[in-house]
Amino acid sequence: MQATAETIEREARxxxxxxxxxxxxxxxxxxxxxxxxxxxxxxxxxxxxPSLDILGGQAVQASRLLxxxxxxxELEVDLLPVNPRLPGVLRKLQxxxxxxxxxxxxxxxxxxxxxxxRYDVIHIFSASYTSFVLAPTPAILVAKLxxxxxxxxxxxxxxxxxxxxxxxxxxATMRLVDEIVTPSGYLVDVFAxxxxxxxxxxxxxxxxxxxxxxxxxxxxxxxxNRNFEWLYNVSCVLRAFALIxxxxxxxxxxxxxxxxxxxxxxxxxxxxxxxQVEFVGRxxxxxxFDLLDAADIYLNAPDVDNMPNSVLExxxxxxxxVTTDAGGIPYIVRDGETGLxxxxxxxxxxxxxxxxxxxxxxxxxxxxxxxxxxxxRYSWSNVRGEWLKLYRTLARGEAEQVVxxxxxxxx
Length: 411
Hints:
This protein has 18 helices and 12 strands.
């Protein structure tokens, strides 16, 4: 324990010394650096976000965006993970509850202090609540310390509740950044309620990685791939599937995901006497393509959501979507045009919509066709220019007028 304490103390001291050295050297963004950007030097962007060690939509989008931006000749882009793998003996500490939070946070802070000063724009991925305090907030404050331009890329469907629960600290911290970017018009509208200006730049769907399959008459083969947390309400999917299976005893359901509710959900499947339900656990993104291709209907029943990548990926695979109307989902699903949408936590309605697709081949085909066409909005060719313009504008210190998308326009 003494060695552990000494190691932690050394990391903390190193972080403080790094900050002191940077400040004494005057390494904040200078007028000379800004001039060199204006003169044509590549814009240096540091993305601060989760690595794929955290399997989820935010990490997937960070990975996709990083790969795309690194191919742009006018940018120099790197990732600083908020979940760093600690070096040497420190990695063993990440296996100890509570201790891992402390040592990981100290190492993350030290890395921020060492690296942020080298970049022009700091692009910070963000969730809500305690995660906002542990990951985005230190990055915002360190970037402010060095005088760097900042983009807060806020991605959580919990935004309104987050701002209501943390009315003093959260909005004040967000006002420190230069730009707030969200993946949906839904969050833009929520920010506006709190007098915070944001813009929408959509998530990326890598269309070329998906096998679009025209299904014709659908089989009762279903997929759910949300993680096992209360907000995604996978239990509603299981209850809906029980109703579907009464009509179609041969129906099959693949449940991909992981999380604290796994045992509870598996028990619910037993209690509902479900057959041909397979819990496949944590699935990496490259294997998800096969699961989407194998299914004929995508079931999604969250109670809280923003702009789920999983719905867009179902679109790309030609998989008809049946979903609840949580959060920003009505901004990406048009009921009766690109999918079928029901009230939150309504298993009866979810099952009824799925059965409707099984009975109506023409409707299912039209929904899948329209949804696949919708994917063009989320292609890199459509999103690329918005990110490049934003980075360029921030790095060069130019003013830009932002036209806020309306709720109607996004729907």
